[in-house]
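for ur thesis appendix - TIM protein. copy paste whatever u need, i formatted it the way the template wanted (i think)
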Amino acid sequence: QDWEHRQEEDTLLIERILLLVRNVLHIPPDPTEEQGVDGDASVHDRVLWVLHISGMDDLLKFLACSPAEQQWALHVLEIISLMFRDQSPEELADLGQGQAAAERGEDTQELETLRQREMAERRVRAMQRPSRHSRFGGSYVLQGLKAIGDRDVVFHKGLHNLKSYSHDLGKEPRRVPRRRQA
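the 3d part is after this line
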């Protein structure tokens, strides 16, 4: 809801939710309780993952960026600082770079294999077709239309030219002098 349409209970509810999230993230880690495998995610990381899955991180980004919701800015800032509590800036920067470089390498490799496959298909298609274009459109016998003698007409053009066929096709028209023209 817009802040104009919110009632006092809604405002209190939002503030209580933000305080709850802040308090949950504020719980200090207990190394004796978290005896997992080296690569295993800590409890803090799992809480952050659940916040991400639920969409709470998007809501926090909205609250931080919206000028109409500036009253929650300090709560959101505190939550964000608690989210990055155990992280050093160098680790965060290296994590993004390494993952992006690995993904970029995989994408580049995949694109290269696709390009090689496409080039091979193109070469195979080029070998299958002749290099010169054949102008031969085919020969067709027009049954029922007689040529000289008792034979049927043999038509040497494409079928799309069949409608414009006449016996005078390809003949030079007889030139009539100007003074004899109608």
